[in-house]
Amino acid sequence: MKKEGFKKYKQYKNVELKERKWPSKLIEKAPIWCSVDLRDGNQALRNPMSLEKKIDFFNLLVKMGYKEIEVGFPAASQIEYDFTRYLIENNLIPDDVTIQILTQARRELIEKSFEALKGIKKAVVHLYNSTSVVQRKVVFNKSKKEIIDLAVDGTRIIKELVREYPETEFILEYSPESFSGTELDYALDICEAVVDEWKPTTENKIILNLPTTVEMYTPNVYADQIEWFSDNIKNRDKIILSAHPHNDRGTAVATAELAMLAGIDRIEGTIFGNGERTGNVDLVTLGLNLYTQGIDPEIDFSSIDEVIGIYEECTEMPVPDRQPYAGSLVYTAYSGSHQDAIKKGLGLYNEEEYWEVPYLPIDPKDVGRTYEAIIRINAQSGKGGIAFIMQNYYGFSIPKFMQKDFSLVIQSIADESVKEVNSEVIYDAFKKSYLNIDSPITLESIEINSKEVSKKDIEILASINYKGNLMNIAGVGNGPIDAFVKGMNNIIEGFKVSSYNQHSLGDDSNAESVAYIQIIDKDGRKHYGVGTDNNIILASIKAVVSAVNKSIA
Ligand code: KIV
Ligand code: ZN
Fold it and tell me: Which BP terms from GO are recorded (predicted)?
């Protein structure tokens, strides 16, 4: 980077407000949402959407609950004209949804836009012209007065045309495009001139949309501007104040949120923040940010994967793995300590209470994700996460005494592959390492003598195959495991069972049982085995055989 290159940029100052109110406010309700995916978003695609894709996307937006949808710039694009006509002629716009079209302030464009809307019950006509210092100077070479005249003339043409389409209820939206680079008092003047021409009422309000067409300053500066604008504009009760944040500085979501504090009634944005350059504000993040503050976003995000699927299909762009609330990795913990905390949090969470699970700001189920995806394993992971996978995917509640040993097995696989270890690999390793291991010792048959040898002892007679030699063993103990170990001690000396656990592998009475055993060999080393069987005694004995086999392997 060029030394002192930053000196060619200037800092934007916040507005001098006597008493700044927005910092002490809280967001209390959802704004009016307007999706501009099909216009601002579509306009920024490598391959703009076909008619079919636009229909799919429109239906998705309707299904999610968006009530205002900008469908295009019909006077500038034939496909957007056709799409608008298609929606109207095929009655695809539900009664509670209003479509919006964009137009510049030129008679022929406005006339074509009205033609596109013919026959519709209600529509927003979105008129814009660029007002910033740099656009006036570099692009238009027009005075402030000439730019105001352009906006007012456009409004007058719209007013005239409205009379020719009495079947339609029209709402006017005006955007001083490049508001973010416009002198604030001048933006107010031009908006007031449009309002004076349009003459909105409290029943038929005008939408004034203040875009950060290019995001150039911190969100607090925009919030100051909105508060000042909202306090100073005449006829505030006849105005819906709208924000249209872009994301050049990566702070569009914060800009929109502070703008809500500062008095914005409505927000224009796109799903997953698609749009020109770094995009528009992401409506999914904004909506779910409200949701996780206990505020109804009035949008349905319960099938986020369906939204992602249609979005990716239509835009030909992927949703990044770390996209807030939606990315494939955002409900995943690899780190051992995070996994442990999530596991504990999920274990204690009670649906009657507020959501309180460490590292998870939202319950993944609320967006249609499952808990299963939460904990994934790589070389950073700990025993808790591995135990979580075994429990949640395969029903094995690995007891604490063997979790460490299993995590070392997985750790070495992860270290070797330098990749994520998926659940199948974990399960496979579990089977190979512990489950019903029957070599070099194989249990051929077993007889558990129900006759008690003394008041509390049990006798076990078993036939085993050890390296090809068939042997009979017998043992008496205070339970089947004790008896079997005693019998086995005749072949493998000195090992004893040091920990034991068992549970059923399902809910019904026919479910298999699983037993976990830790043995200590004659040299004091620990070994682990797991056995499964319909009979819990046999499962335990198989677990002992597995552990012994591990000790002599
Ligand atoms: O970003 C912008 O300024 C726009 C206007 C047309 C509202 O998209
Ligand atoms: Zn825009």
Answer: L-leucine biosynthetic process
Residue 285 CB contacts under 8 Å (≥ 6 apart), including other chains: 253, 273, 324, 325
DSSP H or E segment with residue 284:
helix 283-291
Res 405 pLDDT > 60: yes
Pocket test for ligand 1, best of 244, 255, 267, 268 (most atoms within 8 A of CB): 244
Nearest to 98 by CA among 140, 50, 66: 66
384: helix, strand or coil? helix
175 lines ligand 1 (CB under 6 A): yes
Q: Does the N-terminal peptide bond of residue 320 adopt cis geometry, omega within 30 degrees of 0? A: no
Q: Does residue 177 line the site of ligand 1, with CB under 6 A? A: yes
So what's the pLDDT on residue 37?
Answer: 98
Span 407-413, mean pLDDT?
Answer: 94
Lateral strand order in the sheet of 469-477: 441-449, 458-466, 469-477
Specify the residue with its C-alpha closest to ligand 1, atom 5: 177
What Å distances lie between residue 503 and 46, 390, 445, 484, CA to CA?
56, 14, 23, 20
Q: What pLDDT sits at residue 8?
A: 95
Kindly report the pTM of this predicted structure. 0.82
Task: Tell which one of 246, 270, 277, 280 to mutate to probe ligand 1, the residue whose CB is within 8 A of the most ligand atoms.
Answer: 246
pLDDT-wise least confident of 69-78, 279-288, 337-346: 337-346
* Count of C-beta atoms within a 10 Å radius of residue 60: 20
Distance between CA atoms of residues 480 and 541, nearest Å? 8
- Residue 268 beta carbon below 6 angstroms from any ligand 1 atom: no
Residue 280 among known ligand-binding residues? yes
Q: Calculate mean pLDDT across residues 373-389.
A: 83
Query: Which domains are assigned to the chain?
Result: 34-315 (3.20.20.70), 336-433 (no CATH), 441-552 (3.30.160.270)
Atom of ligand 1 nearest to the CA of 39: 8
Can you tell me the distance from the alpha carbon of 465 to that of 343, in angstroms, rounded to the nearest whole number? Answer: 42
- Cα separation, 538 vs 481, in Å, equals 9
The response to whether 503 counts as a known ligand-binding position is: no
Atom of ligand 1 nearest to the CA of 246: 1
Is residue 46 over pLDDT 70?
A: yes
Give a three-class secondary structure readout of 2-61: CCCHHHHCCCCCCCCCCCCCHHHCCCCCCCEEEECHHHHHHHCCCCCCCHHHHHHHHHHH
Ligand 1 pocket: which of 39, 126, 127, 128 to mutate (most atoms <8 Å of CB)? 128
